Amino acid sequence: MTDIADKTIRIGTRGSKLALWQANAAAEKLQAVGLKTEIVIFSTKGDQILDKSLDKLGSKGVFTEELEIALRNGEVEIAVHSAKDVQSTIPEDLELIAFMEREKVNDVLLSLNPDFKLEPGSKAVIGTSSTRRKALLKQYYPDVTTVESRGNLQTRLRKLEEQGMDGLMLAFAGVHRMEYDNLIVYTFPEDTFVPAVGQGSVAIECAKSLEPELKAALKQALNHAETHVCLLAERAFLRTMEGGCSIPSFALARLTKEGVRISGGIVSLDGKKLLQETLEGPASEAADLGEKLANIILGQGGDEILRNIRAEREE
Ligand SMILES: NCc1[nH]cc(CCC(=O)O)c1CC(=O)O
Questions:
Q1: Whose Cα sits closest to atom 8 in ligand 1?
Q2: For a Cys-Cys bond, which of 175, 189, 195, 271 suits 139, CB 3.0-4.6 Å?
Q3: What span, in angstroms and rounded, lies between the C-alpha atoms of 131 and 137?
């Protein structure tokens, strides 16, 4: 390598513990191939406004906008995001160059009571800020009450006791990275509680104008090919559904012997209507498969569920 090795890769990230963990994971991968790194912290709208639920903040890049501005201004070479937090369509002048190897994708239940069990018919009070988790809980555990819970994991855990909740429903990935595995009392199955698009993976974004040799070196060091194929399928699904993080849609792709399989759908906010389908196809057509799945779901009444959600939000 010529001058690339001498360059310091500035990594833009949010300042939360989870974000920093992810930025450090990227930095380590880059250092392993001999690149120098520097972590630069930015605060996003999603970090600053904690008293509103995410669906009221609007779905457009609440966790990414400030980082994207830094990419444009050349303040950082790459931005590191939870793949789940990245809008389905990113601005024209930016691109996602890598998806890092995915962590276990499931949602989990955390409780301060190690013996807590989520039984059928449970009247438990569970904290979550995700419309998907709330709606899926209503579908599979209609007697559970959900309570809004936002902020970083440390804050949420403090509020768990204060607000009389039995548990918190979160992504395993974040819980594991913050080393709270010991509080996990239940792992939700991925075929019923299908995760949000991108859950468990870390996305790397850069300006399209970044030097091609550097871009190639970054991609080589950071991208995980299998995860990338799966995320192409899931993100095409999300784009076609036109759902941001505030819409209770979900999709999970996995590589199979034949190619790629994606399972996904949408659930109404009250949990009563659940649409879910699974498709399989060649890995080279991952994005088409995701799009096809979304169109099937929209055609089965997913479009109506989306319209109802939007109408409810207008009120
Ligand atoms: N929207 C918040 C968010 N973004 C990424 C993660 C965890 C890591 C991941 O899902 O990849 C979380 C917390 C959660 O959903 O529990």
A1: 174
A2: 271
A3: 10
